[in-house]
Design brief:
Distance between the termini: 32 Å
Number of strands: 7
Radius of gyration: 18 Å
Keywords: Methyltransferase, S-adenosyl-L-methionine, Transferase
CATH superfamily: Vaccinia Virus protein VP39
CATH architecture: 3-Layer(aba) Sandwich
Structural class: alpha/beta
InterPro entries: SAM-dependent_MTases_sf (IPR029063)
GO biological process, one term: methylation
Number of helices: 8
CATH topology: Rossmann fold
CATH class: Alpha Beta
Strand order of the largest sheet: 3-2-1-4-5-7-6
Order of helices and strands: HHEHEHEEHEHHEEH
Helix content: 25-40%
Largest sheet: 7 strands, mixed
Pfam family, one: Methyltransf_23
GO molecular function: methyltransferase activity
Strand content: 15-25%
Length: 278
């Protein structure tokens, strides 16, 4: 699959700054991608240039409505109001204009036609029919989402949604605890100011949920490595971390093979990623 250049950002903030890292980690020829906590859909619209089908999910009805207004008519994009942490990943009851995330996306919100795989079935506000997030994704991303959830449980849930060989990319926040934590955070202040000035200021979409992280950098790194063996954890300058992990193709994988696979993946991604990091 050819890689199209992502659209120009309509605004900039610390999360948007690391969208490029997420996009550079999308596997070549990616079929189905999922963005968890998609918000207004900005990253979903970028991912649509690198995957055949992209689904954005969010618990907020307001965010899904905005996302569909901006990108709901793209032929390979679907938005679903859903809670990742429900047992079956079901859609929120009573949500309208939302389609099954496991099918190819519709041509536009509220329509019954789209690609050849479109079911043409919206969630009925009367019956509140639940449509799940689905499984078997080749790529899953989550940006500034995990501190709103139980971290370990969310990781387990995401790994279950990935297809064998699929890739998970996380961008998140954590709390400072050690003197080194505070020193690294302080180093990000001048960089953030320079970047904000370069991009015309820092802007957060209206209605975006805000919550302080509860885990420290050390805790996030420890739990990520426990739940995602061989993952690559990196702390970045603008108060974010990234985790990149590839799900084994199937069957038991010995530690030597797992380390070799992940080292090759990490090196490949590292060659693609540019920018200031810590």
């Amino acid at each position: 699959m050819s890689r199209r250049t992502p659209q120009q950002d309509s605004y900039w903030n610390h999360n948007v700054h690391y969208h490029r890292l997420v996009l550079d980690a999308v596997p070549d020829g990616c079929g189905r991608a999922l963005d968890i906590g998609c918000g207004d859909g900005l990253l979903v619209r970028k991912l649509a240039g690198r995957a055949r089908e992209v689904t954005g999910v969010d618990r907020s009805a307001d965010m899904i409505r905005v996302a569909r207004e901006h990108g709901g008519r793209s032929p390979n994009i679907a938005f679903l109001r859903a809670d990742l942490m429900t047992p079956d990943g079901g859609a929120v009851r009573g949500a309208t204009g939302i389609r099954d995330a496991a099918t190819s996306p519709p041509a536009g919100p509220g329509t019954g036609s789209g690609s050849g795989h479109d079911t043409g079935i919206d969630i009925d506000p009367e019956s509140g029919t639940d449509l799940g997030i689905g499984t078997g994704y080749d790529f899953i991303s989550a940006v500034a989402v995990l501190h709103h959830l139980d971290f370990a449980s969310a990781l387990d849930r995401m790994t279950g949604l990935l297809a064998p060989g699929g890739r998970l990319v996380l961008i998140g926040l954590a709390n400072n605890r050690t003197p080194l934590d505070w020193l690294i955070s302080a180093a990000g202040v001048p960089a953030a100011r320079i970047l904000a000035r370069r991009h015309g200021g820092k802007t957060d979409p209206p209605g975006m949920p805000v919550q302080d992280p509860g885990m420290t950098w050390h805790q996030v790194r420890r739990v990520a490595r426990e739940r995602l063996p061989g993952c690559r954890f990196r702390r970045h300058l603008l108060w974010r971390y990234s985790v990149v992990w590839e799900k084994p193709q199937g069957g038991p994988v010995d530690s030597a093979t797992e380390n070799r696979i992940n080292r090759r993946t990490r090196n490949r991604i590292a060659c693609r990623i540019t920018g200031t990091e810590q």
